[in-house]
From TrEMBL, chain A:
<dbReference type="Pfam" id="PF15011">
    <property type="entry name" value="CA109-like"/>
</dbReference>
<dbReference type="GO" id="GO:0005737">
    <property type="term" value="C:cytoplasm"/>
</dbReference>
<dbReference type="GO" id="GO:0005634">
    <property type="term" value="C:nucleus"/>
</dbReference>
<protein>
    <submittedName>
        <fullName>AFG2 interacting ribosome maturation factor</fullName>
    </submittedName>
</protein>
<dbReference type="InterPro" id="IPR029159">
    <property type="entry name" value="CA109-like"/>
</dbReference>
From TrEMBL, chain B:
<dbReference type="Pfam" id="PF00004">
    <property type="entry name" value="AAA"/>
</dbReference>
<feature type="domain" description="AAA+ ATPase">
    <location>
        <begin position="491"/>
        <end position="666"/>
    </location>
</feature>
<dbReference type="Pfam" id="PF17862">
    <property type="entry name" value="AAA_lid_3"/>
</dbReference>
<dbReference type="InterPro" id="IPR050168">
    <property type="entry name" value="AAA_ATPase_domain"/>
</dbReference>
<dbReference type="GO" id="GO:0034098">
    <property type="term" value="C:VCP-NPL4-UFD1 AAA ATPase complex"/>
</dbReference>
<keyword id="KW-0067">ATP-binding</keyword>
<dbReference type="InterPro" id="IPR003960">
    <property type="entry name" value="ATPase_AAA_CS"/>
</dbReference>
<dbReference type="GO" id="GO:0030970">
    <property type="term" value="P:retrograde protein transport, ER to cytosol"/>
</dbReference>
<dbReference type="GO" id="GO:0051228">
    <property type="term" value="P:mitotic spindle disassembly"/>
</dbReference>
Amino acid sequence: MSQKQALLDVHQALQKSFQVVQQQERVWADTLAVCTPLLSSLSNLAEQLQACKSLTFSNTAFRDFPDLESRLKYKLNRATGTVLEKLGEQMNVLRKVRDTTSNQVAACFQTYEQHADSIGLTLAVERSALSPSVADMLEWLQDIERLYRNQYLSRRLLLQSISAENLTDIHALSQSWGRVSEQGDPDVVPDILLKASFFMETRQDSKYCKDYESEL
Amino acid sequence: MARTAMNLVPLDPRDLGSQRCRLGPSALASLGVKLGSPVQVSVLGGSALCTAWPRTDLADGFLQLDTKCATRDLIGKPCRGVRVNLSQLKAVPCIKLRAVQVKVIVKDLNTKKRAEKTQLKELVKDLLRNVYLCPRHVVAVTFDAPVAFIEIEGVEPSTHAAGLLTSKTAVRLMDIITVEHFRSIDSKAPSLCLGGMDNVLPPLKEILNLPFHYPKTLATLGLSCPRGVLLVGPPGVGKTSLVRAVTRQVGSRLIGISGAAVHGARPGESEGNLRRIFQQARDSAQEGPCVLFIDEIDSLCPRRGSLGNAPEDRLVAQLLTLMDGVGSESQLVVMAATNRPQALDPALRRPGRFDREVFIGVPTLEERRSILETVGAGMPLTREVDVPWLAEVTSGYVGADLVALCQEAAMQAVRRRCQDSADPEIRPTDFREALRTVHPSSLRSSVARIDFRPILWETIGGLEDVKLKLMQCIEWPMKFPDAFVRMGLTRPKGILLYGPPGCAKTTLVRAAATSCGCSFLSLSGADLFSPFVGDSEKILAQVFRQARAGAPSLLFLDEIDSILGSRSQDAKDGRGVHERVLSVLLNEMDGIGLAVTERRGAGRKGPLHEGGGQLAEARDDAKLEFQEVCNKDVIVVAATNRPDLLDDALLRPGRFDQIVYVPPPDENARVSALRIFTSVTPLGADVCLQELARQTPNFSGADLQSLCKEAALLALQESELQATAVNRRHFLTSLESFKPTLTDGHLDFYCSLFSSKRTSAE
């Protein structure tokens, strides 16, 4: 297999990966956006539960309603459960994003491994005006995958650590959640996509050029 | 041409946790690796497993390293500032792992207690995804998680190559420990070598090891190992180093308290601090053996009620209660060190609290040799440095002094090197210089320390038989101990030099001290007497204690008749203190035994060699043993002009064995004395020393010296400070006006004293 052809194959794989990443990034951002109101409602519920627990109902005007306390608590707990379930669903979506990205990156790496000998090291690190080097792009993909993995893990650990008894933790959950997003560099993925955007566009154009060349 | 040496520079913050190592393209080409393939980098005493990537600026000659998966030594070490050779990098193949055994290191004790095994396994699997692993490496977790590190203990299939975790790999949790415990067990730290502690180290190791390794055996036997160990000894002897060495060898954790750190300003704060530290120790003892070391416990725990100091007493009571709580179910051992065991509260020293007491005394000759060998092992010594000789001359030196001595010798070598740029090897001359600066700490605060200019036997003219007697008593037991043991002789305890004033008694003692090289203590009346009742006795007893600690030593009591009285001769009241000092001296010289805290060495060792062995070394060691046997004691040398004033009890054999009369010099002796005194004076050609000696009968040494001075002054006076030589007539002129101090009456008195002592002995 000629060097040029091998390089072309790798570039195609990279391009496909970047497209997938672009889609997944949108899904990721959307999911996180959905999570935020859920978290605020969760902290709200937690606050209400806390207030409920600290109040002795028999001292207030509600003493005429005998089972108000238990019913209120039951309702609040059920609402908390629902919100947590929804959060769980969002976590599933995030997990799917992570898995898709991982698989794509792994496939890309595999393609590179197959063609690595034909391409050679010098060509792999060569950058041109039209495209970044293969090494750079592989590195970016790895970084993105690592970011998704770490962030998903952190969030999952956060959700696992809270429980219905520990209300103060729930209260602080939204802050901790925000902190996770700030972990590392929050703009990593958009930056990388920006850097690779020119590459993606030129590849698409040159695909037509190649077809044209082969026709000639 | 690719440069093979690279500078190690810090990592890009973007690369943290990526397990990448960034190399230049030519380095990558020489290694022959593809992008992202695993590479083992050995640097800074450890090794890290990373994936090879090109540098972003594609520059050669630099290396950046991410220590996500590295050996224990590299954790926490900043990877920078070293030059790395290409040979230190090795490409390793990669395989998929079937199973991996890990040890999880969590952030705190609560996580460890609450952790669920399955959840933890899932977490570990997620953390180790896409990470290249290698056995005995530690994976660091870079983001916020309850798990701080994961140590890979083993992999299947077992290999030295890099392994990759897949979804099908089985993860087995072998152990969960906390970060503090992990950091404290530094298994690769160099074990502290301590010389001279062979008798003390094994029992301590046993105390720590047995409950950890054989808990069931101990439980069935109904034994409970001692929970507290008290180390007692003079300062600088190695108590704190011993504890550190033992904990490192056993691999247990060491928590230290010092008395000053515990005390707080508010009432009750110190007790709270103490409780907190004990709780911390108990917590960490649940994971493995732990030692709580209390240094200088006499400051923390003095006798209760001695000063009526209520806060102190409360602190002592708190410590006693806490020590009672150290039960045998936890693996906590409390060790304490002190210099002053008599200041400790006695309630602390009973079984159940500090069961074992270990005395570490001033090192004996063997121990000193061992310490010197240990300390000198890491230093570049030339072959001429004679360690046994060093061990002999450093009597009274403790471990800290010996270390200071070696360091001072090294400094001398460095100073010498600055002047001539040769290799800094330490020579015997460096040690001799160092010996002049570093003095034994046990004698440093002594009242009786004196600096004297060394004198050789040759500078004292005549008095051959006196010199011989002194040599026999002082030098021979040290130089030929085997002969003494063979003949069943022991060292004489005391020597009394008496004679007319000015006859070189003090000089003789100085010469003896110079030649034998033992520690020299000198006490005079001014040092001894103090206005407080009981002080003089204390000072004398202290001086004797220090002399024993620095044995073999020479204690010189000059003008002893002024220090001590005689009980039989005067019954006046004003002499009370003299009698008391006399009784102290009599007891010390011939007393009943050593105090328990003054023990040195720990009994005879077993056979020194296990069969075979070089004969010469065996003889050398045997010689050292002989020296140990003979040199335990202190020699008291006294000088006086009035031996008749001394108490009879002093003059009996067993105390002052040898009573030596130092006569005024005879003619030959006068000649040699004159020669010595005029060695720096320019003499005229007509001066004949023999004639002068003939003309000066009954002159003592001091008289002769004074005569020479007079003659020189006269010469200066006559020539109005222009003289260059002293002539014969100057001597004769000064002789006319000079009267000897000794008369025949004096000499008869001494001789009769001598003979009367003889008759009284017969």
